[in-house]
Design a protein that fits this description.
The complex is a heterodimer of chains A (104) and B (645). Chain A has 3 helices and no strands. Chain A is mainly α and 104 residues long. Chain A is elongated. In chain B, 51% of the residues are buried. Chain B has helices at residues 7-24, 29-58, 92-115, 122-140, 145-163, 170-201, 206-214, 219-226, 234-249, 258-261, 267-276, 281-288, 290-293, 297-318, 324-345, 355-385, 401-415, 421-436, 438-463, 483-498, 504-507, 521-542, 548-555, 557-564, 569-615, 623-644, and strands at 68-77, 83-90, 228-229, 232-233. The chains are: A mainly alpha (104), B mainly alpha (645).
């Protein structure tokens, strides 16, 4: 059984990252934007795991980092949702275009 | 050597009273006058005790009165040799000044209880009065020329505050400003003089300066005396500059213009500050540095001629003024001129030559008493008549018998009629002038005659002239002034009679030794005759209403007018400041400030404002915008990293 080449995996993570970035830029619903951020984080996770597997198979550093990132992503999601709830209470909307008072 | 450390209490009491009445006076306004008076009474008693202890108990050591440093604390140390100290120095003149200042201040504090009764800012008045007393006492006991300078400015400030006490009146505000600016301008000379003197003598301490400058052979004296600038030695310049400061404070020509206007203040203040104490600070300053002055004949001549000119000049103007306080102001200026030229004619330091010095201090002492009396008497009259103009007065002798008597005594004293105090001091001054310079003596005699004339003109215009003044009757007006105002008048009246008998030369002389002033009968007769002549003319003109004065003044029309306008000195000052200085210096400077200096600042602010206005739209508040810029930045940086490095 031949191995899947590394570039395939990197392509998946590349595609995932830019799908996330595109979603973050185009969507205005904050929950969707949060999901887009999660997509980008997962793209990074894939990168870590792939490089760990193909370049340094005898070590586990990349995998550890992935676990960290997953943990942080969970915490971040909790914080972000709390912020979104507060924004909703203030603006009666979770549209990012409506919450534009933080400026000059 | 006795302990004189209690003298510091004389300074501490007024400043504490100032703090209490200044901070809490509003709550117990009526009490502040009593507090101030009691405080001053204690200070006066301490000064009398100190004088007794110093002159009688302590006595002489090695034939001179010792200079005692009762307290000394280094305040600012510049270098090992040069420091500014705060301390208390007792020598004959400072002990004498302590007595004069506390006595007159006590009288004025007591008198003001009645004079300013019911005044709205009564407590503030007493606070300022205490501040003044503190500053003046600090000035006379200064050990250090810089300490003297600080207190010198403090008396200037208190004078400013008290002249401007009735600050609702624009004229009082203008007078206060004028007094402050003119004396401040003169103090510039004083400061420059201090710097030059201390640069050469390498010390700020009076005793050290005098000690170093008295020694002809010392290199310090040699340096100061040979370093020359524009034909005069550095020492001469220093002393002349210091004298400018003294002339400003003592209202000598041509820096006298503030004194007549300073009469806008309450009358007791004029008695204290502008007659008895602050204005003689200049005389005191020259007397304090007299040993140094005596080394430089040119500086002494400057003092003498400025003094005699001011004395004569002021006496002429005083003859034409109609405001009683202004007559007294010019008379003060004239008498201070006497003290100044008396110092100036004391050509030497030792023995008989130093007569002028003693005479000057003697006159300072007697003048403080009778001039304070005159002012307080004038205050009583103003209190009664509610006007400063002589035309509104006349025939008051029946209504105010006590004021009449004490005013008469004071007028006799200032005219030099024996055996009142003014006679003794003036006779000594004229003797000193006769021994030194005949021209000054002649002008001095003439001035004495004028003095007697204008003082009796004043006296007759107030108390005699019109047989009785009717326009105050029927108003239910109080007659004589209240008790608090009468008592100081009586005390000062007694003082005016007796202080002349103090053998002053025994206590105060230039070199500290006993000066037996000989009584020159011939000179005394001339001086008294001059005074009596003035009195006779005044009696003839003013005792009864008469046409003569008006005729005479009409016959010399333009001259009379220019004298009445005080020789247009004020106008000259206004011309110089408004036309010349404002147009040629201030206006261009203001233009530069407004256009160049302000312009640069405005330019910077305009540029900043426009730039920030332009870039503020970046802060749109829209998350998508921020993210876009963020990504663009990240991509740019990664491209740079990939391709550029």
């Amino acid at each position: 059984m031949s191995e899947i080449p590394m570039t395939y995996v990197l392509f998946v993570s590349f595609a995932l990252f830019f799908i996330g970035a595109y979603g973050f830029l185009t969507r205005r619903n904050m929950i969707t934007m949060l999901m887009a951020v999660e997509l980008m984080l997962n793209a990074v996770n894939i990168n870590f795991v792939a490089f760990n597997k193909y370049l340094f198979p005898e070590k586990g550093d990349g995998v550890f980092f992935t676990i960290f990132i997953i943990t942080i992503a969970a915490a971040e999601a909790a914080v972000a949702i709390a912020i979104i709830i507060n924004i909703y209470r203030k603006f009666k909307s979770i549209d990012s275009e409506d919450a534009d008072t933080l400026k000059w | 050597m006795q302990n004189f450390s209690y003298i510091s209490l004389v300074l501490i009491i007024p400043i504490v009273v100032f703090a209490i009445t200044g901070l809490f006076g509003k709550k117990f306004s009526a009490f502040s006058g009593i507090l101030g008076t009691v405080g001053m009474l204690v200070a006066a008693c301490l000064s009398y005790f100190a004088a007794y202890q110093y002159f009688i108990v302590g006595g002489r050591a090695d034939g001179v009165y010792p200079t005692i440093i009762a307290f000394k604390q280094t305040w600012l140390q510049f270098s090992p040799n040069l420091s500014i100290d705060i301390g208390i120095m007792l020598d004959p003149i400072s002990v004498m000044m302590l007595v004069v200042v506390t006595t007159v201040s006590l009288m004025v504090h007591f008198y003001s209880i009645g004079y300013l009764h019911g005044e709205e800012r009564y407590a503030t008045y007493y606070a300022f009065l205490s501040l003044f007393s503190f500053s003046m006492l600090g000035l006379v006991v200064a050990t250090n020329i810089f300490q003297m300078y600080m207190f010198w400015e403090l008396v200037g400030v208190s004078s400013f505050l008290l002249i401007g006490y009735y600050f609702e009146k624009p004229s009082a505000v203008a007078a206060a400003k004028k007094a402050f600016i003119v004396t401040r301008f003169a103090d510039l000379g004083f400061l420059a003089g201090i710097l030059v003197l201390s640069f050469y003598s390498e010390s700020l301490d009076f005793q050290t300066i005098i000690h170093r400058m008295m020694d002809y052979n010392s290199p310090i004296f040699h340096n100061a005396n040979t370093a020359s600038f524009m034909g005069l030695s550095a020492l001469t310049w220093a002393l002349c500059l210091i004298f400018i400061g003294g002339a400003g404070k003592s209202a000598m020509f041509p820096l006298h213009i503030w004194l007549p206007d300073a009469m806008e203040g309450p009358t007791p203040v004029s008695a204290l500050i502008h007659a008895a104490t602050m204005v003689v600070a200049g005389v005191f300053l020259v007397a304090r540095l007299f040993p140094v002055y005596s080394q430089v004949p040119i500086a002494l001549d400057v003092v003498a001629y400025v003094g005699i000119f001011s004395a004569f000049f002021a006496a002429i103007i005083a003859c034409t003024q109609t405001d009683i306080k202004r007559v007294l102001a010019f008379s003060t200026m004239s008498q201070i001129g006497y003290m100044m030229f008396s110092l100036g004619v004391a050509g030497g330091y030792w023995g008989e030559k130093g007569l002028g010095y003693s005479a000057s201090m003697f006159h300072l002492f007697t003048h403080a008493m009778f001039k304070a009396l005159l002012f307080l008497g004038a205050g009583a009259v103003i209190h009664y008549v509610h006007s400063n103009e002589m035309g509104d007065m006349g025939g008051l002798r029946k209504k105010m018998p006590i004021t009449n008597i004490v005013f008469f005594i004071a007028c006799l004293a200032i005219s030099g009629v024996p055996p009142l105090s003014g006679f003794f001091s003036k006779e000594e001054i004229l003797t000193a002038a006769f021994n030194h310079n005949k021209i000054i003596y002649a002008v001095g005699i003439l001035t004495a005659c004028l003095t007697a004339f204008y003082m009796f003109r004043l006296y007759f215009m107030i108390f005699w002239n019109k047989s009785s003044v009717s326009h105050h009757e029927g108003e239910g007006h109080h007659g004589e002034a209240p008790f608090t105002m009468k008592l100081p008048l009586i005390i000062l009246g007694l003082a005016t009679i007796v202080v002349g008998f103090i053998p002053f030369g025994k206590y105060i002389s230039a070199d500290g030794s006993i000066l037996e002033s000989e009584f020159h009968l011939n000179l005394a007769i001339i001086a008294v005759a001059a005074g009596l002549l003035g009195i006779t003319i005044a009696t003839a003109f003013y005792m009864k209403p008469s046409e003569m004065p008006a005729k005479i003044s009409a016959s010399i029309g333009s001259i009379y007018n220019s004298i009445h306008q005080k020789f247009f000195i004020d106008e000259i000052y206004l011309f110089v400041t408004k036309k010349i200085i404002f147009n040629l210096v201030s206006a261009p400077a203001a233009w530069f400030d407004k256009n160049i200096v302000d312009g640069m600042m405005n330019f910077i602010s305009v540029v900043t404002e426009n730039t920030s206005d332009g870039i503020k739209s970046f802060q749109s508040g829209k998350i998508a915008d921020y993210v876009l810029w963020f990504f663009a930045g990240v991509i740019l940086i990664s491209l740079l990293i990939v391709f550029a490095f």
